[in-house]
Structure formats: C-alpha cells, structure tokens
Amino acid sequence: MFMALPAWGLTLGFLFPLTIAFAEIPFYFSYLMPRLQAATGQKLLITILCGLMLVAQHITLPLILDGRFILWRLVMYLPFDLFLGMVM
C-alpha cells in the first residue's frame, strides 16, 4: 500500500524534531527574551510574551480544528513554558 522510505527520508525524519527542540528554547529564552527585556524594560510582560509564542508553536501540532482541543493544548503547555521563561 505504501512505498518504502529512502534512507535520507528516515534520517531527516529522525533529525528534524531534534533540531527543532534545540532551536526553540534557546531562540525564545536565550536570544529574544533578553533583548526585548532590555529594549522595553518590561521583564514580566516579555517573559509571558515569549512563553506564549512558544506555546503558539506547540498548540497546532497535531492540527485539529476544534476550539476545545486547541484550548486544552494551550492550557497544557502554558504553565511549563512560563516556568521555563522564568527559570531562564
């Protein structure tokens, strides 16, 4: 029913999620957050904003266009992402 995946496809399918995980948190909390905090002077607001942007990436995968499901994903990720932002 399905053709076999080539070796490069399997390699990319394994490495792509790893590169995303190593890029998201350093970008939002180590690169973007300190610069925005220095520019605005609003530490708490920028921490919440960076946490919300990280949550926005996670609530849409898997993309199920159901408001309750998206709200559940938002509530599921928000405490952890805000905690990460405050720790960093």
Which features does this protein show?
mainly alpha, 88 residues, flat, 81% helix
Task: Write up this protein.
Keywords: Membrane, Transmembrane, Transmembrane helix. The chain has three helices and no strands. About 80% of the residues lie in helices and about 0% in strands. It starts with 6 loop residues before the first helix and ends with a helix. It has one domain. The protein is an all-alpha fold.
Short description:
The protein is an all-alpha fold and 88 residues long. It has helices at 7-40, 43-58, 67-87.
Give the termini distance in whole angstroms.
48 Å
Which regions contain 5 or more consecutive residues with pLDDT less than 50? none
Using the CA coordinates, give the radius of gyration.
17 Å
Helical residues, percent: over 70%
Q: Give, in order, the helices and strands.
A: HHH
Q: Find the structural class using helix and strand composition.
A: mainly alpha
Q: What is the percentage of strand-forming residues? A: under 5%
Shape: flat
What is the subunit organization of this protein? single chain
Number of domains: 1
Largest sheet: none
Secondary structure tally, helices: 3
Count of DSSP strands: 0
Query: Whole-number average pLDDT?
Result: 86
